[in-house]
Structure formats: C-alpha cells, structure tokens
User: Fold FAD-dependent monooxygenase from Amycolatopsis dendrobii.
Amino acid sequence: MFTGTALSLDIKTVEEYLDVKTVREASTDIGGKMDTEVAIIGAGPVGMAAAAFLHRAGIAVRVFEANPDRAGQSRATTIHPRTLELFDSIPDERGSLAARMVAAGNPVPATHFAALPNRLDYRGLDTSFPFVLLLPQPETERLLAEYLAGQGVVVEPRWKLAGLTQDEQGVTIVSETGDTRRAGYVIGADGAHSATRHALGLGFPGTPASTMGFLADVKLERPPAQPHNWDCERGSYSALPLPGGIYRIFGHEPGDTGLTPEEAARRQAQIPDEAELRATLNRLADDDFGLTEVIWASRTGDATRHAEQYRVGRVFLAGDAAHVHLPAGGQGLNVGVQDAANLAWKLAAEVRGRAPRRIIDGPQSYDAERRPIAARLAANTLAQAALMVTFTPGGKALRDLMSDLIGRNGDTADELRGWLSGLDVSYAEDGSLAGRRVPNLPLADGRTLHRALRPDRCTLVVFGTTVAEGENVVRSTRDWHDLAAVLVRPDGYAAEVWTPGEEIKAR
Ligand SMILES: Cc1cc2nc3c(=O)[nH]c(=O)nc-3n(C[C@H](O)[C@H](O)[C@H](O)COP(=O)(O)OP(=O)(O)OC[C@H]3O[C@@H](n4cnc5c(N)ncnc54)[C@H](O)[C@@H]3O)c2cc1C
Assistant:
C-alpha cells in the first residue's frame, strides 16, 4: 500500500550524492607497481567474506593464508539473519550464497541467550531469513572458498604475514619467508592473534579469561530432553542439533570458573577427549547421553578484548583480529562478516577515489561505525558469561529472572532478539532513520531490495507516487516509515531519507 505523496525528484542530484554514478568495471590494470588493489590477510570466514564483497564491487583483491588446512576447526555453528541477508546480496546459480548456505544447514526457529531455558523466537522477524541457521564453520568456509574460486579470486596458501610497512601510495606486506607483495590497502582478517594488529603496534585492551568451558561436536544416541540445563551445584550443559545427526555440546563446571589467567591458559590447552567428555556429562547429568563419537572438541574462555583502532593509514582490521569474546550466542563470525560488509563498499569507493570524507575518517567511517558495535558485543558476551557461570543461589535467581523476562516476549526479548539477529544493529544517531538497516522491501519489478542492491553504489528506493527513473532507482511496493524515498547503501543501511514533499537534494 502506498502512502507516499508526489515528490519532486532530481535524480541527477541524487546520483551525484555519495557519487553513485557508474564506475569503471573490475580493474585488472592496477599499475605495474601493485600486486593487487586490496590484500586480505587470512582466509577465515571474515577474510573470505571481505574478499567476496570487494570483488563484487569491482576491486582487485588477493587473499593470503598461513594455514591452508583449516579442516576440523568446527568453531562457529550459528548464522544469524542479518549475516544471511548480507550473503543474499552475493548472487550465485542457486540464487545467492545465502540460499546455498540455507540448503546446507539446519534452520531452527529460535536461539538462546546465555543458554537460558526460554529462547528468543525469530519467526516473526521482518526478514527473508526468520530463523537461526545451524551450519558448522567449515561448511560456511567451504561455500565461501568455492564462491571465490569460481570468481577467480586468488587465495595464496602457506603465506604467513610477518610484517608490513606503508607509505602514501600503498602497503608492502612481508611473509615469514621474506616474500614481499605490494597492495593499495590491506585488511587484517588474521584472527585473534593477528599479525597485522601486531605489525601496526595496536593495543588490544580488555579482560583475560577467567572461565574455561568445554565444547564439542559429538554423536549422541539419546540427546537430553532440554537443550539447555543449568544446576547451581553441578554446572551447566547444552546440546544443540547440527546437520548430519551431530550435536554441539557445551557447558561449564563450577571448577571452570574464577580462574587466574595462568590457570585459564593451562585449562585451555587440555582439550577434552571422548572419555573426559563422557565423564563430564556423567558428573553434570548422571548420563553420558550415549556419546559415541567426538568429531571435534575444544575449550572456550571469556577473554574479551577489542583493538583500540580499526584503521591505521591504509590498513584495516576486521573480525577476530579486531575483537574477541566468549563465543556466546554465536556472535563472533556474524559480527565479523558484518564488519566486512561495512568496510567493503567504503574501501571500494576509496580505492576508486570517489569516497566522501565522512566515510573515510568521518562519522560514517568503518572505524566510527563498527568499533562501538564491538564494545556492545563485549558487554553482551560478558553479561552472558555472568549468567552462564555464576553458580550461586544469586546466579540462579538472576537466570530465572532473565529467562522469565525473555519468556514474556516483550521489550527485553525484542531488544536481545534485535541485537543477536543483527537486524536492529544500527548506525543511526538520535533515533533518525538514516543509519538504520532497510528491510528486504518488495519491489515493483518483482525483485526484493536486498538482491537489487548494488555492491559499489547506493540505490535509491522510492515509495508511492514519486516519479523517478534511472539505473540506480527502484520502486518499493511496501511502505517504510511513511518515507517518500530512501537512499540505501550497498550494505543495506539507509544513507539518507526523504519525507513526502521534501525535495531530494544532496545534504
Ligand atoms: C571454540 C570456539 C567456538 C566458537 N563458536 C562460535 C559460534 O558458535 N558462533 C560464532 O559466531 N562464532 C564462534 N566462534 C568464533 C568464530 O569462530 C570466530 O569469530 C571466527 O572464526 C572469526 O573469523 P575470522 O575470519 O575473523 O578469524 P579466523 O577464523 O581466526 O581466521 C583467521 C585466518 O587467518 C589466518 N592467519 C592467521 N595468522 C596469519 C598470518 N600471519 N598470515 C596469514 N594468515 C594468517 C588463519 O590461519 C585463519 O585462517 C568460536 C570460536 C571458538 C574458538
């Protein structure tokens, strides 16, 4: 239903705004002195997502990976709706990379906060992906790697960054074997112990681990009746179904808490084997749930840190290189992919020399928008850690209270759902609409907005009777906040909004 009224639309002005004019196609001519326009250090999920978004935006990109064999590192299992929306903007023969992930994973309707019994139901969310996708990280990485290979994006294996230097024209990266490469810009997506971050001399302030839980992907003959179980005396255990009849089990015993950093480091090195996992489950539940096979096991701590800057000159940090925290609520990979999407279009514009100042080092820069998100992520996961491992009567009372609030499905549930799903993450100031995610609006041409977004330029969405034509203009058949038009960034957030009657011109 249209409610927007006629609007005078000066499309020329809009196309000039944020410089949405057609840009030249993918450049392979990057001048004899450069090996690539953007070098990405690390072929984890964040590095590969950044490579995919940048390549889509027509930027020559090359990925350097120290360890060519990441198989067996199960780690993240959870993909949230906002991440799927971002992957939905990457087309492939199945429709999109997101469609491929959904086909490979296990969509479930709800997720947990702090392993509380009452869960956050995603079914009513305004998204094409109103569910949590359980997909082991190696699968996510395989699909990303296949996509990049199909696009001809080179991932150089066994290339470990040892150092870098930068000047006004670019960055020289050096491997541990002394091999050097030259790039216009570098993204360090090389994980928690990031060599890029070290080379930049950036601090990684935060708090060390004080808890160290168990975590494993196993086969269970008779999984527990409830996914999340918590006992003040014994501790906690959870079991979540992954594809292929596998369960992700995780939990804490009271002895795993209140550790010194040295104790935490010692405990982290003690990877539990099948016998120990059985013994742990028996201590926690008087049952090993018919555990027959351990596919992968690890320990997880609550060390929480984030880099003091996300950009130094021509070098950026993204994903675990920029922030680490307890993997609670499945957020690390998701927030990292969202870093990559936020950075890619801005960096693409900068590489092409058409980025306005405000997205380079102003209020809409990558650093300005994403570092506050890491601060929220840190607070959110520390709060979950407190709820998960405070094995006292007070801790139990707090869990009961929070679980009850979530179960009421009111503001608390909405707030947590909006954050965990990624859908309410916003860069808006003072409650304005500019900076908010724009939902997947249905378009008059039969497409939906997220698949219509361009990777390298903004898209103007008009509502109602506004008359507009142009390559970068689409018409929505659904209202959004009674607006006449919204200029949508490549990462799906509103850049500018216009109300009915307002003249569209650059501000
Ligand atoms: C036990 C565990 C469980 C987790 N569970 C979840 C979960 O359920 N949900 C969730 O969202 N997140 C989870 N996480 C977090 C998630 O795995 C990470 O957030 C995610 O892997 C981050 O991706 P990344 O690409 O930033 O870094 P990484 O995945 O660490 O990838 C970094 C890459 O850089 C490479 N590299 C490192 N140094 C160099 C160098 N010097 N030169 C070149 N390459 C280099 C590495 O080999 C690696 O391939 C978990 C993490 C752990 C440890």
Summary: The longest strand covers residues 291-301. Residues 41-47, 64-67, 70, 75-78, 137, 160-161, 189-191, 195, 215, 298, 300, 319-321, 327, 330-334, 336 surround flavin-adenine dinucleotide (CB under 6 Å). The domain at 212-301 is CATH 3.30.70.2450 (Alpha-Beta Plaits).
